[in-house]
Design brief:
Layout: H1 2-5, E1 7-9, H2 11-29, H3 33-56, E2 62-67, E3 71-73, E4 78-86, E5 92-98, E6 110-115, E7 120-127, E8 133-137, E9 140-145, E10 151-157, E11 161-166, H4 169-180, E12 200-206, H5 218-224, E13 228-233, E14 239-245, E15 253-254, E16 257-258, H6 259-276, E17 280-286, E18 290-297, H7 302-311, H8 322-332, E19 337-342, H9 348-364, E20 366-372, H10 375-381, H11 388-413, E21 417-421, H12 426-439
Parallel strand pairs: 3-11, 14-17, 14-19, 19-20, 20-21
Antiparallel strand pairs: 1-10, 2-4, 4-7, 5-6, 5-9, 8-11, 9-10, 12-13, 15-16, 17-18
Helix pairs in contact: 2-3, 4-6, 6-7, 6-12, 8-9, 10-11
């Protein structure tokens, strides 16, 4: 019974049956055609038996195995591969159907390939998840067709596997490698010119042409009878907190990902860079109340804790309460810190409702408010209106676009750092801002 279920008829069988039926019909009018119909039927039956023998005569036949990472990176293209082996004595035509998770909504993932006898092949494809969570892969189905092309044999390799989709750790690794090799400028990270110097003394060394003459140590110069300068190092162990708004304003989608997912991916990248800079990284998530808090630290397992915390975050669809954020930070953050708040404001009035709490936070910490440009409005502004309706739409778009600029000016007027960015450039612009503030010694 299992063998019968694995047999599938190829289109060539149906074409042959149609020809046989036509021949037998013609035989009623032209009797001599009957002999040709019988001959064709015999040859067709012999070819079917031969095809069954070819497909089922080799015990091993085809072997397949899917290689999928233990976890996938959200918003990135993740490589998946299928390994194939042909143990038949002949070259075979293969149809490979992989049962990928339902979240991708793809039912046409079909690969056609030719595989020579006793050879192997690797089929590679990519998947781009847009939601965090668990994704379940099903079986790998292989339909084998011999050179005769009459029948197909199905091989099903049960490789059910559940993998977790985490925040974008591929993006994190990319920035980490470039940070370690001082190649961040290739991805758009600006090279920040340091203004002044920090107060952490490192060493006294001999003057080299180009050194700041203000750092000359005159006492050491008198003792050594040559110019000596003081050198300083970047201040370390500064607290960096990423505050992630999980309210309904962060549910807005952009290229498949919500603004919350962009904020989570950026938080992971920024936390890793901060830890590389010997700073302490922490996370606070909130909406109408404080959800989770991970105090800033730079121990070995801090990045793993941040990754696990970010993996579980979901939009809460409620109005954000910044008063609760202020009370929480007042209670738990005793040291001056850089607070990077990922949120979104569409109008100036919505920001002004929260401005008193940002001002209170800014008295004790350095606050950076990160919010998003509406790229659809930007596209609309670049079009030339032709109808009255389009003129109204462009006028409203200009109003909202201008209000975003006013929000930045209003925040900066009260000494609050502001960053207006597109979602796809969020990580780059946030890192640039962090490095700039650190270089200026603002933290």
């Amino acid at each position: 019974m299992k063998t019968i279920k694995s047999i599938y008829l190829a289109p060539l069988v149906y074409y042959s049956l149609v020809i046989l039926i036509l021949l037998f019909i013609l035989a009623f009018v032209f009797p001599f055609v009957f002999n040709f119909a019988l001959l064709f039927t015999s040859i067709f039956g012999l070819l079917l038996v031969t095809d069954i023998f070819i497909l089922y005569g080799t015990p091993k036949g085809i072997f397949a195995r899917r290689a999928v990472p233990e976890r996938l990176s959200n918003g990135d293209t993740n490589a998946i591969s299928i390994y194939l082996e042909n143990h038949y004595a002949l070259g075979m035509s293969l149809e490979v159907i992989d049962e990928i998770p339902f979240q991708f909504q793809k039912r046409d993932l079909l690969f056609l390939t030719q595989l020579a006898s006793e050879t192997t092949q690797i089929i590679q494809y990519t998947l781009r998840p847009t939601k965090r969570g668990e994704y379940s892969f099903g079986a790998v189905n292989i339909f084998v067709k011999s050179p005769l092309g009459l029948l197909k044999k199905r091989y099903q390799f049960s490789q059910e596997k559940t993998v977790a989709v985490y925040p974008s750790f591929l993006q994190m690794r990319e920035y980490e490698l470039k940070a370690l090799s001082n190649r961040l400028t290739e991805t758009g990270i600006k090279k920040i010119r340091r203004i002044g110097h920090s107060q952490e003394f490192e060493q006294i060394r001999q003057y080299v042409q180009g050194d700041d003459i203000r750092t000359i140590n005159w006492q050491a110069t008198a003792r050594r009878s040559e110019l000596m300068v003081n050198t300083f190092q970047d201040e370390k162990s500064q607290n960096i907190y990423c505050l992630i708004d999980k309210g309904r304003v962060m549910k807005m989608p952009f290229e498949g990902l919500s603004l919350l997912d962009y904020a989570i991916n950026s938080t992971l990248v920024l936390a890793n860079i901060a830890l590389q800079k010997q700073d302490k990284a922490g996370v606070i998530t909130f909406s109408n109340k404080i959800d989770q808090t991970l105090l800033a630290d730079r121990k070995a397992g801090q990045l793993v804790k941040i990754l696990d915390l970010l993996y579980k975050q979901k939009t809460l669809y409620s109005e954000t309460d910044y008063e609760a954020v202020y009370i929480h930070t007042k209670k738990y953050l005793k040291q001056r810190s850089l607070l990077i708040c990922y949120t979104n404001f569409d109008t100036l009035s919505s920001m002004k409702r929260q401005l008193p709490f940002f001002r209170k936070l800014a008295k004790e910490h350095l606050v950076l408010v990160v919010f998003f440009e509406n790229t659809s409005l930007k596209t609309l502004l670049q079009t030339q209106p032709t109808t009255t309706e389009e003129i109204y739409q462009k006028t409203i778009a200009e109003k909202y676009f201008y209000e975003k600029q006013l929000i930045v000016k209003e925040l900066e007027k009260f000494g609050i750092q502001a960053l207006l960015t597109t979602p796809q450039n969020l990580s780059i612009n946030t890192i640039n801002k962090y490095l700039m503030l650190k270089a200026r010694g603002a933290i």
